[in-house]
Write a structure and sequence with these properties.
Elements: E1 2-6, H1 10-21, E2 25-30, H2 34-44, E3 51-52, H3 55-60, E4 67-70, H4 77-87, E5 90-93, H5 101-114, E6 118-120, H6 128-139, E7 145-153, H7 156-165, H8 177-180, H9 183-193, E8 197-205, H10 236-240, H11 248-259, H12 266-273, E9 292-299, E10 304-310, E11 317-324, E12 327-332, E13 337-342, E14 348-351, H13 357-360, H14 362-376, H15 386-405, E15 409-410
Parallel strand pairs: 1-2, 1-4, 2-3, 4-5, 5-6, 7-10
Antiparallel strand pairs: 7-11, 8-9, 8-15, 9-10, 11-12, 12-13, 13-14
Helix pairs in contact: 1-14, 4-5, 5-15, 6-9, 9-15
The structure holds nicotinamide-adenine-dinucleotide.
Length: about 425
């Protein structure tokens, strides 16, 4: 089997590497940035006549491979996935599938009609930490799940990078942050319990990254001599290249994003920040996505769950408490372990393999399971087909409706 990829940015290049290292051949690429298209084609030996900078030309060629990876931006997945399914590709599609419910439903129906697999990249399911929590729940050790309290700490540096300066800062260009950032978490709530959500209430706000909070005299870009540079934690040099805690690893992978090509020098990188969207003052951007949001849910069987997303945290990680009739699980995915309390017994610390790279190991896992699916037809329990993803996407859509209207939203099948 061989693979075509549309969108070879941060995510697409990860999937290219994963398929390649599992012995799958990358035979076609569609990427609108010519520098990235060229460097990726060279890396994987893709023939120039199978490289496209334009999606219309790519799809006009017909089916070029068995598998199509859709890793373009949120609002492009629908069109790319639809054309892919119509041509007969099996799809590995990035999340969120689409910020529009009807488009998600249409793709689900199309995948069924065409008898093609459409797997969505809910990578957390495949990370050893989440795998282990799921196994404990399924073992019955904590009894029946009654309550879940899940918190996504986005990290002040990550939020400023992606949701204030970067690609996911505007709902009309990508998706609301509760869908773009948290669809994995809402998916985990469904995955852990196997229960659909029936009722949703949500509140959320933007408080910090507002134009009205711009300090006096702050220029549009940090590197243009901002008088507040020393005291501002979001100042571009601190986020992208000075050795401040937690930000350096992030900067390294995003160099390509700021410069628009591979192999940029440090000088080019610093220069690019003077004009790049990523060099902007965080108080003078055109962002509109929510910074803090709480989603309260009632699932089937009356299980209660909450999910909180916050921009204002030092680190980027999730912590979770899952209560059951016979015990509870408490942990955070940053520590690669969680506590299992079975009521009346000594608590146990459950440690998992430390796979820190690529969503705690989830990026490699999703490709491995997808390959299993292609080779054996087995849909592993961890795999989220489009029909499953619909359930968690629906929660995000309902959360947005609730946040905007102040109403409780009922979800029907
Ligand atoms: N599964 C996850 O955990 C996870 C994590 C981050 C991002 N994502 C999602 O993955 C997707 C891609 O994110 P990314 O970080 O790789 O973004 P990115 O901007 O780095 O990559 C997108 C690439 O698609 C290319 N592209 C855009 N439109 C195109 C078109 N019409 N034809 C061909 N190429 C086109 C862009 O040039 C870019 O290189 C997004 O939907 C994002 O929300 C998923």
């Amino acid at each position: 089997m061989n693979v075509a990829i549309i969108g070879v940015g941060a995510r697409g290049s990860i999937y290219a590497k994963q398929f390649h290292s599992n012995g799958y051949k990358i035979v076609a690429l569609c990427e609108k940035n010519p520098a990235i298209l060229h460097s990726t084609a060279k890396k994987y030996g893709v023939s120039p006549d199978k490289c496209f900078a334009n999606d219309e030309e790519f799809f006009a060629q017909g089916k070029l491979a068995d598998i199509l990876v859709v890793a373009t931006q949120d609002r492009d997945h629908y069109g790319h996935a639809k054309q892919g399914l119509n041509l007969g590709y099996h799809l590995l599609c990035e999340k969120p599938v689409s910020p529009i419910l009807e488009q998600c439903e249409e793709l689900n129906a199309l995948a069924i009609e065409k008898d093609r697999y459409m797997v969505v990249c809910h990578v957390l399911r495949y990370a050893p930490y989440y795998d282990a929590t799921k196994k404990v729940i399924d073992s019955g050790k904590i009894g029946k799940v009654t309550n879940i309290n899940h918190v996504e700490n986005v990290g002040y540096w990550h939020f400023s990078h992606s949701y204030v300066r970067g690609n996911w800062r505007r709902e009309d260009e990508t998706a609301p942050s509760i869908l773009a950032k948290c669809c994995h978490d809402l998916d985990m709530i469904y995955y852990w319990t196997g229960k659909k959500c029936k009722r949703v209430y949500s509140i959320g706000e933007r408080r910090e990254f507002l134009n009205e909070n711009a300090p006096e005299g702050a220029p549009t870009h940090c590197e243009m001599g901002c008088p507040h540079a020393k005291n501002c934690p979001y100042e571009a040099s601190k986020i992208y290249y000075r050795p401040t805690l937690k930000t350096i690893p992030y900067m390294i992978v995003k160099k390509r994003l700021v410069c628009g090509k591979d192999g940029a020098t440090m000088k080019e990188f610093k220069e690019a920040l003077k004009t790049s969207p990523y060099g902007r003052c965080v108080y003078r951007c055109d962002n509109d996505v929510i910074e803090n949001q709480v989603v309260s849910m009632v699932l089937e069987d009356g299980i209660n769950a909450t999910h909180t997303m916050t921009a204002q945290s030092q680190n980027c990680y999730r912590h979770t408490r899952i209560c059951g009739t016979k015990g509870e699980i408490i942990g955070d995915d940053n520590s690669f372990c969680f506590k299992l309390h079975v009521f009346g017994e000594r608590p146990k610390k459950i440690r998992v393999r430390m796979l820190g790279i690529g969503h705690l190991g989830g990026d490699a896992g999703v490709v491995k399971d997808f390959i299993t699916l292609m080779e054996t037809g087995v849909v592993t329990p961890r795999m989220s087909l489009m029909s499953t993803t619909l359930e968690s996407h629906k929660i995000a859509f309902a959360a947005e409706e609730s946040r905007k209207t102040g109403k409780v939203i009922e979800l029907n099948d």
